[in-house]
Write a structure and sequence with these properties.
Bound molecules: zinc ion
Strand order of the largest sheet: 3-2-1-4-12-13-14
Order of helices and strands: HEEEEEHEHEHEHEHEHEHHHHEEE
Structural class: alpha/beta
Oligomer: single chain
Number of helices: 11
Mean pLDDT: 94
Largest sheet: 7 strands, mixed
Strand content: 15-25%
Distance between the termini: 47 Å
Length: 419
């Protein structure tokens, strides 16, 4: 009987994975590699994979493509989200949210994020393995959502940014990802991989929203991070390090992490090291506005608001410096700290703080895809890539905020949103 059930489950998964074929015609198509906007292009795809991109005029006369009267571009990528968390559940509010409820949050927020034009995300931090469940539900075709890479519980030190520090001692509450010392940390890497994660997230420094720690202060030591990176890379997983603090950013880069998240207090030496090691920075420079305006009502602790005031502006100035120096940048927003679906609001901040609109779009396509190891599959519309296409009414080079109002979303050749 058990065997019969497994066979049925396999058939369902295969049926769900069957992806459409067809041709999509776009009035305009933004080529993220060259920065050119091409007129009247046709994207042909088979089983959800692009097979050709060509001028619509060269289609055979019997072709009857679906047409989008707008500017098409590849589905966007957010390399730093928390789909299972809601922006209303900060501080002590979050203690009332069960693990199963977090999974339900993830199901809802995955759809919201997809319809906002983000067809791929990297989820860097979730309780238990709620993110693994959401990813698997999407991959099986049970629910709508972006293509996901997930980290499961982030690794961190006792009392650090990854721990639960809200309750007094008698509750003996320790977060799942807490591991002190190189070997316990290696074991935690192995455990997360056992339960299905795609990458490892670590907390190198203190954080803004955690109680009782300091964003600028180191948490994991260089020795611990070297052990984690060695273990993760040996087992084929990349490492993302949360680091606000100047020293932690450098230690994380030297330890060999693939990306530094936030990077708020990066200095010239950190910028030099990031360039030297090819480390990506994922700098979430939109959410400061949201935290300062709405953080208190969302339950954020007063100390968290104060911490944000201390680093928000510096992070934006350092974003400008790091970008000007030529550090690799991937678009990531920390969605979940602010409401899901508003991800594209960060584009305007990136332009305000030194990027051209094309550079900001490249960070959310080519850059994020490279960071995830998915270059050629996502972040481009080219033969061999997924048929993940979005469209906006205006020209994003003239007004990057047009990306906040996506009119069309196709994922793997399946239309998910159309106006
Ligand atoms: Zn985060």
């Amino acid at each position: 009987m058990k065997h019969a059930l497994i066979i049925i489950a396999t058939c369902l998964a295969t049926a769900a994975a069957a992806a459409p074929s067809g041709t999509l015609r776009c009035d305009k198509l933004l080529d993220v590699k060259t920065g050119q906007i091409l007129d009247d292009q046709a994207i042909t795809y088979s089983n959800g994979i692009v097979t050709a991109v060509q001028p619509a005029a060269s289609l055979p006369p019997d072709a009857h493509p679906a047409t989008v009267h707008a500017t098409c571009l590849p589905g966007l990528i957010d390399a730093h989200v928390h789909l299972t968390y809601n922006a209303t559940d900060e501080g002590y509010n979050g203690l009332g949210v069960s693990i199963p409820r977090q999974t339900v949050n993830g199901v809802h927020n995955a759809r919201v994020t997809l319809l906002a034009g983000f067809t791929t995300v990297r989820n860097v931090g979730a309780d238990d393995f709620t993110d693994v469940a959401v990813r698997d539900g999407i991959n099986a075709g049970d629910i709508d959502g972006p293509r996901m890479q997930v980290s499961g519980p982030p690794l961190g030190i006792t009392g650090g940014h990854a721990d639960n520090n809200l309750l007094p001692y008698e509750y003996h509450d320790t977060a799942m990802g807490v591991a002190d010392g190189p070997w316990p940390a290696r074991r935690k890497v192995r455990e997360n991989i056992k339960y299905g994660v795609d990458l490892i997230k670590i907390m190198a420094s203190g954080g803004v929203l955690s109680k009782g720690d300091t964003p600028g202060a180191p948490q994991y030591t260089l020795e611990e991070m070297q052990a984690i990176v060695d273990e993760a890379h040996r087992l084929g997983r990349r490492v993302a390090a949360h680091a606000h603090g100047t020293q932690s950013i450098k230690d994380a880069i030297i330890a060999g992490v693939n990306s530094v998240e936030h990077a708020s207090l990066i200095d010239d030496e950190g910028i030099r090291l990031a360039k030297q090691h090819g480390t990506y920075l994922v700098m979430d420079i939109y959410n400061d506005d949201y935290i300062l305006q709405h953080g208190a009502e969302a339950g954020m602790l007063p100390e968290s608001i104060e911490k944000e005031k201390g680093i928000g502006r510096l992070q934006r100035e350092n974003f400008r410096r790091a970008h000007a120096a030529g550090v690799r940048m991937a678009f990531g927003t920390d969605a979940g700290v602010y409401p899901h679906g508003d991800n594209a609001k960060q584009f305007a901040k990136m332009v305000q703080w030194g990027m051209t609109p094309l550079e900001a779009i490249q960070a959310a396509t080519l850059g994020a895809a490279d960071l995830m190891g998915w270059s050629g599959k996502v972040g481009v519309i080219a033969p061999g890539s997924y048929a993940d296409v979005i469209a906006v009414a205006g020209n994003p080079f003239d007004d990057v905020t047009t990306l906040e109002h996506v009119t069309f979303v196709m994922q793997g050749g399946a239309v998910k949103k159309t106006d």
